[in-house]
Amino acid sequence: MTLTSTLKDGCLIITTDGYLNNTGGELIAEECYKFLDDGVNKIVIDLLLTKVVNSIGISILIEILERLINAEGKMIFINLDPAIDKTFAIMGLSQFAGKAGSLEEALGAF
Amino acid sequence: MDQNSVVLKMFLPKIPSAELVAIQALDQMANYFGIPSETMGEAKIMVTEAVINALEHSGDGNRQVRVEFKMSKEKLIIFVRDYGTGFNTASIQVPDIKDKLHSRNKRGWGMKLMKNMADDFIVESKPTGTKITLTKNLI
Known about the structure:
Number of strands of chain A: 5
Order of helices and strands of chain B: EHHEEHHEE
Largest sheet of chain A: 5 strands, mixed
Largest sheet of chain B: 5 strands, antiparallel
Number of domains of chain A: 1
Largest interface: A-B, 27 and 27 residues
Radius of gyration of chain A: 12 Å
CATH topology of chain B: Heat Shock Protein 90
Distance between the termini of chain B: 13 Å
CATH superfamily of chain A: STAS domain
Strand content of chain A: 25-35%
Number of helices of chain A: 5
Radius of gyration of chain B: 15 Å
Order of helices and strands of chain A: EEHEHEHHEH
Number of helices of chain B: 4
CATH architecture of chain A: 2-Layer Sandwich
Helix content of chain B: 25-40%
CATH class of chain A: Alpha Beta
Oligomer: heterodimer
Number of strands of chain B: 5
């Protein structure tokens, strides 16, 4: 998996491309923590180009969520594949992270 | 399963991301039946988790995992078998994110995902290995 990131309106936007496994999860975590350490506590993760995930990769997202919650921050996912959406729901991520239909909607939700 | 079903059997080696081979095979079979990719999403998640579990938890003595798909337009049956030392199926803990958020170990979700996404889910484990059977209705 690869990712790109950008900062917009004080919000970190991460766009992933590829398999969100343990390596992919660690890449996302590394990027998020860089910005969390600088005080950014709003994160949007765009999964449009990620069609395959595993629970190990998502477990790392839970680690990020924990740090974000402690920083009184919020995470929103956009472009969720229906199966990945259901995976998040089963794992309970949906209780602590939001989802939106578009980047604009996500940015407006913070 | 009617006469128009297809069977695919493979042995996956214990290498990183071997589960992707199984998922690609599933995609090809779905394509053959004209089943849209979106319909296969949950099946692919189940296969991913089953194969990863088998590769990770079957022990160092187990160098491969057997995966079998029986597929028709209506139904997919997935078998994943490892040749490890087995485990006590009664010891499987159901994870909860509220507990995970405060614990060091955030993992352990595979069984819960498979159980919730499958229309039928059977796990059998003996000292000679573990077999998971998952059924997914496609219509």
